[in-house]
Amino acid sequence: xxxxxxALCAAAACSLVAAPAMANSLVFQGVTFNTFxxxxxxxxxEILNANAATGNWAGTTWLxxxxxxxxxxxxxxxxxxxxxxxxxxxxxxxxASAGCTTGGTNGxxxxxxxxxxxxxxxWRIDFAGSPDFTAPHLKLQFMVSPTQSKATGDLLSQTIAVxxxxxxxxxxxxxxxxxxxxxxxxx
Length: 187
Hints:
By secondary structure, the protein is α+β, with helices and mostly antiparallel strands.
């Protein structure tokens, strides 16, 4: 029984280590933003609960443009799948007004027809060059309508950080405590 418990704990620890190291998450004004490195050059961007945003994003219905930067040396980008009609621009960054019109970016800016906000929006994006998805910096523009010329509310400009190793250590300690409590109750 003791050997089985130790093996189970070891398997759980290995599964945490084997989990994707490049999973990042941020919640801002009721909207959740997640990024996942699917492989060395593909990033998955998830925007969840966008159609129920709070704060000064309340009432927005449209995503006009977004930028993913601070991800290494990028020479090209293309959206493999996802909502809306967006084209990649690796030469310009996201402007305070609508679109990719500022100076250079160390990532890619995506603009075009845009997309209606939904409860779950997921893009798979391939990058050319030398991407590094450790801590991507996400910028985006929510609009009330697709014809609007300036973003509504705050322009999100945040780095989506990877959880610290201490977070995983605390989770493992918690699992260990749960296991100890369960073992005590049995015995």
